[in-house]
Specification:
17 strands; Barwin-like endoglucanases; hydrolase activity, hydrolyzing O-glycosyl compounds; peptidoglycan lytic transglycosylase activity; MltA; about 25% helix; alpha+beta
Length: about 425
Amino acid sequence: MRMTRLLISACILVPFLLAGCATPPPAPQSAASAPRPGVCAPVSPTCPQPVKTVSTPAENLALPPPGHLVRTDFSQLPHWDSGLSPATWNAFLESCTRLSQDAPWTSLCQQATALGPFDALTMRRFFEHSFDPWQILNPDESPQGLITGYYEPLLQGSLTRTAVYRFPLYGPPPDLLTIDLGDLAPDLKGRHLRGRLVGNRVVPYFSRAEIDLEDGPLTGHELLWVDNPVKLFFLQIQGSGVVQLRDGRRLHVGYADQNGHPFRSIARYLMEQGQLSLAQASMQGIEAWARSHPQDLQAVLNQNPSFVFFRLLPPDLPGPLGTLGVPLTGQASLAVDTQVIPLGAPVFLSTTWPGRNQPLDRLMMAQDTGGAIRGAVRADFFWGFGVEAEEAAGHMKQAGQLWLLYPHGVQPPAAH
């Protein structure tokens, strides 16, 4: 009876807890493979509205299809020949460590592993012989969508709170409740509700404004402390990063969970308030605004109720872990919507470099997800680590097209 009441409460709370911008993809294959939250540039389109019909029949919870796929050929991929790189090949081999046990990937991954190091001609022939390209279209048949960027940030921090290091990273709270909606409706497999129990009721979990109080409800669950609230905010958007301690040690942190509230763009809010122009609405522009408005900063951050919890990652990782559970590769890994693009699959991206009209066409691997990455032609480009990666990611807000490469002769799930 107690579980029945919880499930009924969960159904009633779907509009509040479904978090269209904060819902993780299908469960990862290991504890290491957790989804990022609102992985997107500060300016991103408004996330899809949560399902509003929550009456008793479970089928009413189903989400509409985000788009569809159309079979094409490699001649339709812009600059296909020049879009291959050693980084992409290595990223594909990383994907194979997770896909090799799943049909129809088993034989393809065995072939790829046997091919050895990168060779452009061999790689091109392998993909052309083994895969079919499918162009991804929006529900209205349009081929273009938004391509943003993300990176692995570096923050300065401490294991203890000090006068300088006073902004906490929290681990997952013990009272955070997650309900798999796939238990209620098959169409919602991989969608989750997040909340907490009050008596026998499931209520929304604490928002950012409630968590970030001086004596907030999560006091005692701090992992680390950092010196910059804006960089901490962007760390939550990126989903993973590096914290350098005062003794020089570097700790890798990654996404562990999220409070279930939807991601809201503070850049959009600042533009609506007349505080930023469209040209200033970048990560760098928000940081500049924060430096000149410290007294207003927390109120603006609270406009995004989504809040991310972290965990410490192994120190020897070559890159942050994506949702697939493999290290991400700079300029070769992509965050996507798994309702359309299966994790691990190759995706050909055609867009432009940040702030320029110069074509950026390359094969990448769908190895990550993001709470704000929702929709068919929608992706987040992982730039890597360092100042240049931060600069590129902060300014990337480009139009682009996507093609899914799927094993030859097999229909992708979204094409059914």
